[in-house]
Amino acid sequence: MSIDSPLIIALDYPSLDAALCLADRLDPARCRVKVGKELFTRSGPEVIEALHGRGFEVFLDLKFHDIPNTVAGAVQAAAEQGVWMVNVHAGGGRRMMEAARERLEHHGLKTHLIAVTVLTSMEAGDLAEVGIAEPPASQVERLARLAQESGMHGVVCSAQESSRLRELCGEAFLKVTPGIRPRSAEQGDQRRVMSPADAMAAGSTHLVIGRPVTRAEDPMAALETLQRELTLA
Ligand SMILES: O=c1ccn([C@@H]2O[C@H](COP(=O)(O)O)[C@@H](O)[C@H]2O)c(=O)[nH]1
């Protein structure tokens, strides 16, 4: 199935049952779902099968970052499970990203392959502490350019960088943006945030939303409000 919605709901739950409990209330024609490190580490490939069985397109967000051969193998394993999207860290460098892309091409695997630039939880001080003097926006641009040259289909960035990346990398280059916060929502550990409507206006192609929906008192009502705000309802 191929859907138009930009929404990707992050199923950050500590068990398969909890994740499927929300998934069973979602409509796979109106959103995609994301499986991240916590859920995948607990449930393994079973969760992917269960979500596919319910008709969802799945973004497997494991942010691979290792030597090129290891990352290529991991990306191949993800793609062979039929996920819609998988990601690596752009900081792993050109050879790592190229090895991942070439492996998918070699096996005719059509999974979207994207690269994480700078985590949306990071701000300038965090980058400085790990030896990066550039502000987040410049580091994101540098890594997005490298990701595009290495054949990635897009990047994970914050929506604050989407409009600049639209100019730099073009409309078709995917800008998958977590750190989405409706105005009333708590920021939590996120630092480079934006509201859903502003993120779309800025050029994000996909919005990743976790806690504002999954931790809401009424997750389905929170999602409805979001869809109405984006005129997707
Ligand atoms: O830079 C990044 C990359 C990935 N994420 C993931 O997105 C969701 C966001 O969840 P919220 O609850 O809406 O904050 C989460 O799964 C992260 O692992 C990110 O936030 N930033």
Q: Can you characterise this structure?
A:
There is one protein chain. 42% of the residues are buried. The longest helix has 14 residues, at 136-149. The protein is globular. The protein has an eight-stranded parallel β-barrel with strand order 1-2-3-4-5-6-7-8, surrounded by seven helices. Helix 5 links the parallel strand 4 (85-89) and strand 5. It has one domain (7-232): TIM Barrel (Alpha-Beta Barrel), CATH 3.20.20. By secondary structure, it is α/β, with parallel strands linked by helices. It is built from eleven helices and eight strands. Helix 1 packs parallel to helix 3, helix 4 (68-80) packs parallel to helix 5 and helix 7 (136-149) runs parallel beside helix 8 (162-169). The protein has helices at residues 16-23, 37-43, 45-53, 68-80, 94-106, 124-129, 136-149, 162-169, 196-202, 211-214, 219-229; strands at residues 7-10, 32-35, 58-64, 85-89, 112-116, 154-156, 174-177, 206-209. The mean pLDDT is 97. Ligand LLZGTKA7 is lined by residues 10, 12, 36, 116, 119-120, 156, 178-179, 190, 208-212. The ligand O=c1ccn([C@@H]2O[C@H](COP(=O)(O)O)[C@@H](O)[C@H]2O)c(=O)[nH]1 is lined by residues 10, 12, 36, 116, 119-120, 156, 178-179, 190, 208-212. Substrate binds at residues 12, 34, 61-70, 120, 181, 190, 210-211. It catalyses: orotidine 5'-phosphate + H(+) = UMP + CO2. Belongs to the OMP decarboxylase family. Type 1 subfamily. Keywords: Decarboxylase, Lyase, Pyrimidine biosynthesis. The active site is at 61 (for ompdecase activity), 63 (proton donor), 63 (for ompdecase activity), 66 (for ompdecase activity).
